[in-house]
Every structure is written in structure tokens, then in C-alpha cells.
């Protein structure tokens, strides 16, 4: 202080200042002190790291004030427990939220660097499979932006979702080494660490005061270490945190005496312990018997709950009974649901609380979000394996169950069938622990993720629970963050929106309604089209670079990107493409409006049919793209390695969004919303949030087709026969025949046969039942596309009426109805 001359220019600190000059100094400091390379050896990735660290400094400063403010005010905090957080690249989003993009651009320019080139250096953390993990990331963005104190808790997987390559049309999985280059966003907190037990047995004893107590004698002990990533809100000081746990060996824990001194055994243990957080499991794959997966879940939940209790202990004059007043614990699907039994264990065994008071705290603290109705996706653990792994938790679950089933019997006397259905222990094909039941019984609030899904939950998988506790059930329709999925990924539209409706849409997406007034304005429509055209050209460049396929940005871009799954029905989309191919072959020169069909998505490595569907898409692509009679009208591209980074190029470039799941199977979807925000029209079924999107935009601006959920149930109950749909539809018969005869596989009649066989023999997702209506609907799409003004009008109205699908709306509902978490304004 004293050595600054009075005449020296007052300038901002290099770690906190938001001006271009302060940022430049921050970058230069990090290049020197954190990167430590000679100037001549500096490459864009070093500038990326230095800028990321400089940005982190600024967030860290906000983070300190945020934590202090909520602690000082004693405000309630949301803890969002999720096995997945699909965060996507961080630098661009953080610059946006701190509102320092142009400052960063200018700072780098002074150093001879280009911001876009530097942004491209980031390797995204792929710590999620798809929608569920991305939802958690959108919710963190909204929580911070809405100034709600929150902690995201999850797993720091060393290898996230695999990188997908396409070789000869097949998916090939490559390990994701996202940490190889280091992760500038996280701060390791080796002192924030907890022990996690596993295996062994539960020992019952009487303590000195004569009370019955239980002590867990573990077979194995490991340690979780916290890594914190700051989560900056948009345009506010609030900076929350994502805490991810990484597994370590416990070096000094002597399990049994004869191991002492066995150095090599100890090192081996260390290696084993660290495998716990090595790899993210794919979803869409049966996980029966995957003990390591249960360990992962228990590991991160135990660390998180111990951390929460620790924070509570550190607060003066706050007892553990106040846990539900200070923290809302949200279970993102059943993956963290072991938390119900773990919190009971911590309260009863470790803190000596009575069962009833511990149970009251537990139920008042937890909320449970269900994400699926698919029976095969509802988690259960085989009882023997569960008991060997978590012996004390099994006892606790039995006790929860005993008391719970008494309550059921009291409410429904004599209904033993209901008791059996509701039990936490399943009896069919071997005993198992039903995690959805545990989550439901242990939570005061249970919600589905779209209106239809929440209704189906109450009518099907959780019907009995709804009848017992109707007041616990609600709907919270998913949402997506307009910061990342509009402002950041569609800068052309961002500028047009700012100019047309003002900047308020970034934090109040319903402001997009202001666009409606321009839907019939010819000048505005032309500008709207120009933005879309530029986004399509940008995507076409990317597709060309990654697949070699050349797409014409003037064609209709028809896009389906999401995990590859039979229920999402990418194969229905392909049947339409083959229909057009067949029509063109039958009738050369047929005037059809030219379309580019774009796919992207990963298949679970063990999901046989999903991998064949990728092969089918690529086989059709190869055939179509190289046939001069066809490729003037249709082209097909499969974008490899769909992730958040390329999603940001894809959603803004769509004219048509494919949301064609079998009705009743997609809980909500969020991809559907990202497309809508960016002005795509949707072709879709009445499934998930599509229903609400159509309500918002108006039936006349949505391409609806297909069976409803009620139809699907009825058709299945009547004994669905796919053959009936083939014999009555020549076009469908011809299309299936082309695949079977090897038309797309160089005469090979085997490679794609499993897909056709599955459709002919069982067709579990009613692809053939919806085919005719889908194709007819696509013909209507083509007709509307030819009327450019009509299409543009519909496109504008889709954006204009997408406001409901902001994650800010969703998070406000969670905070108000479930969590009781209020706004905490943070100031310096
Ligand atoms: C939004 C998103 C998803 C979810 O897409 P759905 O169409 O809702 O299944 C999956 N992966 C990524 C990378 C996403 O951004």
C-alpha cells in the first residue's frame, strides 16, 4: 500500500478486476506463475489455462462472499445429490455469466491470441450420460443465477463418458482422458475428506449407559476427498459450488494386524480404492450385480452427508434437529437414494439419536425426483450382494420397511397384496432392495419431470404410494438454461433478441413473448432466417470436418441428437429416410424438398441393438450420400461423439427437431426444449414435455403424430402384432425389404437383420404402429417448408413461446414448493 505513489493510476486488482486490463494482467501472472513456460513456448492451450485460472480467481472471490453471506444470514441451502453432472465446457459459460466476454477477447487480443481459438482448447468434463446429468448442470446454473445457496454433490470420475468414434459405420469407444491436461476449474481440498466403510458386519452391543447400540465393523475403508468447482450465477455475485468426491486409499488404517508391514499389499489396496471413482457407468445397460456401481453411489452419498453434518456442527447454536431447516437434500433419481439409510445410520448409530427423531429429520430433509418409468431402468440390488456390501444399511432398511408396512396395513387393512407391492424388498426373481421405494418412503416430496410423466408416475410405478400420501406428489417440468443453450451457443440470435425484446430474456425467458409481434414482419423474418442460415453453415462446416459429408445450408436441417435407444426410436426416423430413398428410386426426379438428416448420440457399450442402429444410420448415409439419383434431394450425416460442446453447434442449426419417442416412455426430454428455444419446429409424439411444448406454442405450430400413451397401453393390451402393419402398408414392406436384402450393406443380409427381426417379431416400442402417421406427418413438414414465410413465422413463434422451459422457472418451483430455499443477495 504505502509504496504506491499517489500519482500511480488506480487500477483493479489482477485477480479480481473485470476490465480487459486487469484480466490481461491476471493472464500474464498465471502464464508466469502457474504455467511457467518461456514466452516462446506458449501455445493457445497455455493461454486457455491461464485465462481459465484468471476467471476462476474472479469466481473464487465471489464464492467467498457468497458462502459468508448465507452462513451469516443462516439461510437454507439446497444440496443437489446427483451421480452425474454433464457440465460441458466451462470457460465460455463463465465468461458469459461474469459478463466479461468482450474484456477477455480484448485482453487476449493484446497478447496476440484469439478468444475462439483459446475456447476451443477446452476438454469438456463428460461426467454424465445424457439428459439427467445435463439437467443437473442446468439446475446449478439456475440456482446460482437466482441467488439461491446451493451445493452440487457428485463423483469426480477419472474417466467420464467414453469418446465415440465411428469406424466403418460402427461405434468404437475410446477412454475419455479429460484430466490428462489438468482441470483448471477445480480446487482440490485434501483436508475436506471423509472415511467410507464397506463390507464387514454390524455388531450390536450395549453401551455404558445401558443403551442398545450398533457399530459397523467394515471389511474395507476408503477415503473421499473433495474437489470444488465454483458455479457462477449470471449477472450476480452469487457463486455456488459443485463438490465432487474422489476416492483414495486410507494408508494408516490397519484392517488386521497380519497385514501390517505388507507394503505391496498396501499399495494394491490403494490401487483398488482409487478404482471406485475411476469410471462413469453407462445408463441403458442392465446393472444387475455391479457391486462397484453400488459402492460409487454409497461412496459419494456418504461423503456428502458427512460433509453436510460437518457444516451443521460448525454452526454455532444449531443442533442436528435443525438439519431440515438448513439443508434441502434432493435425490436426482434413485442413484443417491442409499442416502436415506445412510442419514439414518449417521444419526442413530453415530450421533445416538432415537429412531423416531432421526426418521423425522430424514424425511423432512429429502426430496426425490423420479426420471423414468421404464421398468428395466428402476434400480434394484440383489439382496445378498447388498447385505455383504452394506450390512448395517440392510438392517436399517429392514427396520424402515417394518415400520412402513405397519403404516400401510393400518391404512389398508387386509390388503396384503398391496403390502407386498409396496415393500422395500422385492420378492420376484430373487430378493432385492427396491431403491425407488426407499427414495419414496424416505422423502417428503416426490416429483416427476413433466406433467404427463408425473401423472403416469401416480398411475403406475408409484400408484400405491400416491394413494397413501397424495400430498407428497407434485410435478416439476424440466427446463434448460437459456445462458448456455441460447446466449452462448447462438450469438447471432442473442444479438437479434437483445435488439428486439431487450436483454431481460436472459434471466426471464418469458420476455421472448415480445417476439410474437414480429412474426409477421417481413424485415424481421428475413433477419431471423439469416441467423438460422449462418448457424446451419457453421454446423455444415463442423459436419464436413468430422464426417466428410457436405451439407447445403439451404436445405431443411432435420436433426435427431440424443442417446441412442429403442424407445427414442432413431430407427423410425431411418425408416422415413429409406421411404424417401425408395420413392426417389421408384420415381426419379420426384420433386421433394431437399433435406439433410443429421444424427448424433452414443449407445451404451453393451446395448447390442442400439449399436446396430448406429450402423444402420451410417449404412443408409453411405448409400444415400453417394447415389447421384438421390443425393440432390437427401443427405444423411452421423455426427460422432455427441457431447455438450458440439450440442452447442447443433441445436441452433436445426429447422426440425425429432422428438419421436414412444408415448409414455420419455420422462420429459430436455433436448426438445433446447431446439425450441433456438427456433426449431418439432415433429413429435405426445410424450414427456412435448405435450407442454405443444400447449405453449399452439397445435398449429407443432407437427404431431402417433399413438398416445393411452393408445400404446391399449394396443399392447390387445396383443400388438407388428405384422398387421406390414401386410397393410406396401411402402413399409418395401422399406423393410430393402434393409433385409442388403441394399445399405453392400449385399450383406446379416449385419442389419437384428433390427428388422426385432421390428417384425416384437417391436417393443411400436415403431411400425406409428410408421404410417409419421411418414404422413413428414410429408406435411415438407409442404410447410416450401412456404418459407409460413415456416419462419412458426419458427419465431416457437422461440417466442419457449419461456416456460427455462431452468429458472423449474428451479423457482423447486425452491418454492419443495426446498423452501430463498434468494440471498450477495454484495461485496
Ligand atoms: C440435452 C442433452 C441431452 C438430452 O437430450 P434428450 O433429447 O432430452 O434426450 C443429452 N446429451 C446432451 C449432450 C445434451 O446436451
From TrEMBL:
SUPFAM superfamilies annotated for this entry?
UDP-Glycosyltransferase/glycogen phosphorylase (SSF53756)
Q: Might you give the EC number(s) for this enzyme?
A: 2.4.1.1
**Superkingdom of the source species:** Bacteria
Q: Which GO terms describe its molecular function?
A: glycogen phosphorylase activity; pyridoxal phosphate binding
* Catalytic activity as recorded in UniProt: [(1->4)-alpha-D-glucosyl](n) + phosphate = [(1->4)-alpha-D-glucosyl](n-1) + alpha-D-glucose 1-phosphate
Q: What processes in GO biological process is this protein linked to?
A: glycogen catabolic process
Mark the residues carrying the PTM N6-(pyridoxal phosphate)lysine. Answer: 674
Where is it found, in Gene Ontology cellular component terms? cytoplasm
Cofactor(s) named in the record:
pyridoxal 5'-phosphate
Q: Which UniProt keywords apply?
A: Carbohydrate metabolism, Glycogen metabolism, Glycosyltransferase, Pyridoxal phosphate, Transferase
Q: What class of enzyme is it?
A: transferase
The UniProt entry, under InterPro entries, shows: Glycg_phsphrylas (IPR011833), Glyco_trans_35 (IPR000811), Pyridoxal_P_attach_site (IPR035090)
**Family to which the UniProt record says this protein belongs:** Belongs to the glycogen phosphorylase family.
The entry's function note states: Allosteric enzyme that catalyzes the rate-limiting step in glycogen catabolism, the phosphorolytic cleavage of glycogen to produce glucose-1-phosphate, and plays a central role in maintaining cellular and organismal glucose homeostasis. Phosphorylase is an important allosteric enzyme in carbohydrate metabolism. Enzymes from different sources differ in their regulatory mechanisms and in their natural substrates. However, all known phosphorylases share catalytic and structural properties.
Annotated protein name in UniProt: Alpha-1,4 glucan phosphorylase
Q: What is the lineage of its organism?
A: Bacteria, Bacillati, Actinomycetota, Actinomycetes, Mycobacteriales
